[in-house]
Amino acid sequence: MFPSCRLQFTAWVDAVIFVFSLENESSFKAIYNYYTQMAHFRNSAEIPLILVGTQGTASFGSDGQRKHTSRLEEQPTSW
Question: Residues 2-52: pLDDT tens digits?
């Protein structure tokens, strides 16, 4: 897709749901890049945004707590 056409949807969207894999840091970086590109076309505060992190398998200890921490969990909670 041509860059000039890629984000035309930004002008008419009512909301955006970004989905990324907690197990794949590049997927998070990709949606962050889309978000920053969208911000050039429209005030991001005007667009409701939902950020969803998916995970295929998880390792939990006997206490029910996760055994490991993903680097993605260390990312800022707001853009």
Answer: 455 666 777 788 999 999 998 889 999 999 998 888 888 888 888 899 999
| Count: domains in the chain | 1
Residue with tokens 């000039």: 4
The closest alpha carbon to 12, from 38, 50, 51, belongs to 38
Range of the domain at 44: 3-55
**Residue 1 pLDDT level (bands cut at 50, 70, 90):** very low
66 located within any domain: no
Distances (CA, A) of 26 to 12, 37, 61: 27, 16, 27
**Is 37 inside a domain boundary?**
yes
